[in-house]
Request: fold
Amino acid sequence: MGTQLQDKKIAFLVAGSGVEQVELTTPWQAVVDSAGAPTLVAPDAGVVQAFHHDVEKADEFTADLAIKEADEADFDALVLPGGTTNADRLRLVPEAVELVSRFVRAGKPVAAICHGPWALVEADVLHGKILTSFPSLRTDITNAGGTWVDKEVCVCTDEGWPLVTSRKPDDLEAFCAAMVTEFSAPPQPSPPRS
Reply:
């Protein structure tokens, strides 16, 4: 067990249903194993239904905080787990999109895996960023001003905020390692607010 994330508070933002369980639990455990403090944020506090591959119900988790109560100033970084229906539902929640945007405007690191970058597309924060995702998001990312690459993990610090992305559950080991590294780095100076 390391201490790279000691005293770091990490928000995990999900919809109330549809998150790919392994894309929530594996990064969560990586934060815990690095002495960080994860918090599950959802549209409403209470039960979050996870899934395996969008079809088979998995475990239920308890959201610690409703999005409307979440303040990016209380956190050091943000994780956007995947799951097709999770990511699609989340990008339709204006408060979730605004929270993602606030993390980016504050220059805080974000890690997104699989379909997780859909929230970044919706927040219109990908201009000038290089990232990866599940291949079906390639056109959305390109249309949103990002450059899509097919890599196990991609770390981009351009545009004043760190972004860690991966394509799928098979990439979780590399994703978690890069996420912990970026989340433990000294904060970048905040970019000017637009």
Remarks:
- The mean pLDDT is 95.
